[in-house]
Amino acid sequence: MQLILEKRAERSRTVALASPLIAIGLTIVTMTILFMVLGKNPISALYVYFIVPLADGYSLQEIAVKATPLVMIAIGLSLCYLANAWNIGAEGQFLMGAVAGSWIAVKTQGTGAGHWVLPAMLLLGALAGALYALIPAICKVRFGASEILTSLMLVYVADLLLDYLVRGPWRDPQGFNFPTTAEFDPVATVPTLIEGGRLHLGSILALIVVAAGAVLLGKTIKGFEIRVVGAAPRAARFGGFNANQLILLTFAISGALSGLAGIIEVAGPVGHLQPGISPGYGFTAIIVAFLGRLNPIGILIAGLFLALTFIGGEQAQITMKIPLDVTKVFQGILLFYVLACDSLILYRFRIVSSSPQVARGAH
Amino acid sequence: MRDTTSAAPHTSATPLLQTVGLTKRYGSFLANDKIDLDVWPQQIHALLGENGAGKSTLVKAIYGLVQPSEGELRWEGQTMVLSGPSQARARGIGMVFQHFSLFDNLTVAENVALGLDGKESFKEMSARLEQVSRSYGLPLDPKREVWQLSVGERQRIEIVRALMQNPKFLILDEPTAVLTPQEADQLFVVLERLKSEGRAILYISHKLEEVKRLCDTATILRGGKKVSTCNPKAETAASLARMMVGTEIKEVKPAASREITVPRLVINDLNLDPDDAHGVHLKGISLELRGGEILGIAGVAGNGQDELFAALSGERLARDPGTIVIEGIAAGHLSISRRRKLGAAFVPEERLGHGTAPRMRLSENALLTGHAAGNMVQHGFVNTAATLNAVDRATETFDVRKAKRDPEAASLSGGNLQKFIVGREILRNPAVLVVSQPTWGVDAGAAAVIRQALLDLAAAGAAVLVTSQDLDELIEISDRIAVMFHGRLSASLPTASASREKLGLLMGGSSLETKEQAHAADT
Predict the structure, then answer these.
(1) Per-residue pLDDT tens for B83-103?
(2) Do B315 and A237 touch (CB under 8 A)?
């Protein structure tokens, strides 16, 4: 008896839908084992992770707030990944967007500037993210540099730039020496949707981005180009599509969405610029993109799910003293299983009896 | 089922190699279904069949590459179980594959050394290589790097590598597919000599005339089953073809009269450097192709046909716009989409990955080449109905067989996918069609449909440029034939006066680069 991996004639739609669920199931099994090793009751740990956050309105709002940047970034990343362009630096583009948008907020602070401030911040944030993403894209197209490495390395540049600004030129003079800007003016703040709540306008924007992504990929020739260039580069060239142009385009869109998510995060839930504005949204969004099968609707669902793990992780830390890093372990294991399960879409397992047995018997 | 014994008398009492009820199952698919085959010493035994008939599976089982699901192999009357090719080689079974497994950047001797199991030193091996190759009239310089060699010379390496193991049984998989007629003749001399030395040869081919000439016995496979074992010399090519295909093949008929009109594709002194180190330089290529004409380009693979296709399609751009003129407009600098808008259409050699995106649906693959012109895209949005309509029309017109309305390209058989690709381009009513290897690896039925479609397209007024390594195909459908050799294109000959011998000489480069050929013969 042996187990073989056999290529399917056509990709299986059932498995394509089931694969993320199988991956989540396997992750939960692994987490159960991990909780037991940590000496925690796995049932109550999983309950705190996945059920408790769904039980009250505040947590539900918080899930939506956390899902907003994840979904927005992941939609952009999915375009890159579909086109075989590997943008790993969304975190850096997120931070750059936050920095660039904050510049307007800092400069208009207390000047009584009008309602143009927030739209200008959002635009500048998106623009900065796009330009920042174009650096690895241009290096890739022009010099053949690996975009995986360059985009990743630029994350640390952005991180340190932000650090420098809030500790130096942009530090709040009344901030007791904390590395942070002053609280943004109301005109520089993303309005909340419910009075006194946490849900903000950015969540609506994220939904619009999801819809736009779905239309782009499903209905337009540009979306088709993106998919062909990734799936069959030589056929794409034969079709008249320019892969290099698409690398630039998808990186620019992805960077813009990351930058937009960054400035929304700063001008919304956080309210000022400071280090640590992102708990790794740009990296977690990579998991969201793949868990959502690089499909906009899938990404929306996956974004909410991973936001749940952030909230659940906080709850688990408070109530069960499980370290917050376990959430990152969870996310890593999840990505691992998602990628593993994806091979089942194109391949299937089959158990075969070792064939030469018959012949050997006759020997 | 009929079984006539071969004409040649057997010199020994038992066959050298037998397969008895050999069956190979892949899932529910029977690649080989209870095949009985006897190969005797001093016999050239042809294995005939269309693509997918099970020839490759059978020889892979004999060479130890696949394990039979049922049945057995016998070697000199004894049951034989092979767990891998090295065991087959140890018994004296050698194989020359259709697709060479050579490293371009290594020398001939290094390549041979990599394929041998023996323990002799590299120096001894090199010496033996030279000696074996000389004694069989297959001259090879052990120190040359493979990328410098012609396809025929590369095949020589594979054959010599097999001969150095002194095999009793040699399998050759479509050895003449890449040779000029003259090179094939030289190969036949070698094979006759191997036979006279008492060796057995299993010869896979679908060139029937060649099998009739060379082989003593032929076993014909169809759909995984053995149809017959016969003496090919006593059969006609037509009767062999009927056994291979199972039905009569519709004959391809050119239109009664065709009007030759204006020049639709003109190439003026096209020179182009290759984009990779081992590619071919296109040198001074010129031709003029008028509406209503089919021009065939013959030549051994790797003489610049791929580079010419890329230059014509616009996948590679020429420096001077005037070198390629489509429908009277200088197009050398235009992208493939712009050329399509001028009325050109292209069918590349590779179906999967070049002509189509394998894991995309047929409708998406219709969009792949249809988006530039026509109604498939409106204001940047894809008109799905129009793409599906294109699939339906191609399906209907060219009898594309598929499991559902809009499957993934990779799920179609080679012949059906090729019919779809050719149909997709022809239904766009091109003024110029450039097609490379239109029936490569396609079953005979589909090949006839495709050739007829090319003739009909020309009859409707289009200019058709066909590149093929199949001389019979070119002679069947072309009005004129030109030959590519080392990146140059010969003047075209009217098909009526283009004998196989004349074309064969041109394919060997004789009248084009006599010096170079003389040099190659020296080494």
Answers:
(1) 888 889 889 999 998 778 888
(2) yes
> What is the average pLDDT across A323-333?
87
What CATH number belongs to B263-356+430-522? 3.40.50.300
CA distance A220 to chain B (A): 4
Residue type, B212: K
Average pLDDT over residues A228-254: 95
Do B2-92+167-245 and B263-356+430-522 come out as alike in CATH topology?
yes
Distance CA A263, CA A253 (A): 15
Q: Kindly report the nearest CA distance between residue B438 and chain A, in angstroms.
A: 17
pLDDT beyond 50 at A355: no
pLDDT of B10 over the 50 cut: yes
Q: Which residues of B touch A236 (CB under 8 A)?
A: 357, 368
Counting residues of chain A whose pLDDT is more than 90, the rounded percentage is: 61
Comparing A352 with A171, which gets the higher pLDDT?
A171
Each domain of chain A, given as residue ranges in start order, spans 12-350
Confidence band for B2, pLDDT divided at 50, 70 and 90 = very low
Position B3 pLDDT exceeds 50: no
- State how far residue B369 is from chain A, nearest Cα, in angstroms: 5
Range A173-210 burial, b when 16+ CB lie within 10 A, else e? eeeeeebbbbbbbebbbbebeeeeebbbbbbebbeebb
Report whether B238 contacts B294 (CB < 8 A): no
Q: Please give the pLDDT value at position A1.
A: 63
Contact assignment for B360 to A228 by CB distance below 8 Å: yes
Q: Could you please state the CATH topology (level 3) that the domain comprising B2-92+167-245 is classified under.
A: Rossmann fold (3.40.50)
Hey, where are the domains in chain B?
2-92+167-245, 263-356+430-522
Question: What's residue B443's pLDDT?
Answer: 78
User: What is the model's pLDDT at position B203?
Assistant: 94
Residues in B touching A352 (Cβ below 8 Å):
none
pLDDT value, residue A18: 84
Is the CB of A11 less than 8 angstroms away from the CB of B359?
yes
Least CA distance to A362: which residue of chain B?
A: B79
Judging contacts by C-beta atoms under 8 Å, the chain A residues touching residue B368 are 228, 235-236, 238-239
Closest CA to A86 of A211, A186, A230: A230
**pLDDT tens per residue, range B399-447:** 888 888 999 998 888 888 999 999 999 999 999 999 999 988 787 788 8
Of all residues in chain B, the one with the smallest CA distance to A229 is B357
3-state secondary structure labels for all residues of chain A? CEEEEEECCCCCHHHHHHHHHHHHHHHHHHHHHHHHHCCCCHHHHHHHHHCHHHHCHHHHHHHHHHHHHHHHHHHHHHHHHHCCCCCCCHHHHHHHHHHHHHHHHHHHCCCCCCCCHHHHHHHHHHHHHHHHHHHHHHHHHHHCCCHHHHHHHHHHHHHHHHHHHHHCCCCCCCCCCCCCCCCCCHHHCCCECCCCCCCEHHHHHHHHHHHHHHHHHHHEHHHHHHHHHHHCHHHHHHCCCCHHHHHHHHHHHHHHHHHHHHHHHHHHHHCCCCCCCCCCHHHHHHHHHHHCCCCHHHHHHHHHHHHHHHHHHHHHHHHHCCCCHHHHHHHHHHHHHHHHHHHHHHEEEEEECCCCHHHHHHC
Which fold is adopted by the domain A12-350? ABC transporter involved in vitamin B12 uptake, BtuC (1.10.3470)
Of A288-297, A347-356, B403-412, which gets the smallest average pLDDT?
A: A347-356
Of A219, A235, A358, the CB nearest to B356: A235
Task: Please choose, from the candidates A259, A226, A227, A229, the residue with its C-alpha nearest in 3D space to the C-alpha of residue A134.
Answer: A259
pLDDT at A11 over 90: no
